Request: fold
Amino acid sequence: MTIDRFTTRRWDAVSEGDPLGSVTFPITLRTLMIDVAGTRDLYPIHHDREFAKRNGARDIFVNTMFYEALFGRIATDWAGPEAFLRRLRFTMRGPNCLGDTIISRGWVSRKHEQECQRLLDLEIHLDNQLEEDVTIAYLTVELPD
Reply:
């Protein structure tokens, strides 16, 4: 049996515009319960369907920390285990609710060096079955020498 090993991308093998690949992530009740429990975000809009709907949401939805983790995972899965996430910011334009399926798309938007660091700026968009660009992230990843 062969075990695949994660490899870290090398600076000279990356170009601006390179795609990051796509991640598909279904939002299930289990996902939402793990999200609430793991982040200790007990605000009812993330776990109480009636509360969420009474407050104008389609249904319960993932929280901010879920996005932080998902964007970090997408970036580091693509860049590799020796890469270092230097910066993350994102905009939530709409919710990803119970029953939605998130599909990511992303690319290298800039390749640059700063103070002896080899940096890649990444842009990642999350879409669901209802709309595109539900959440958009801008990240900076450092690759090792």
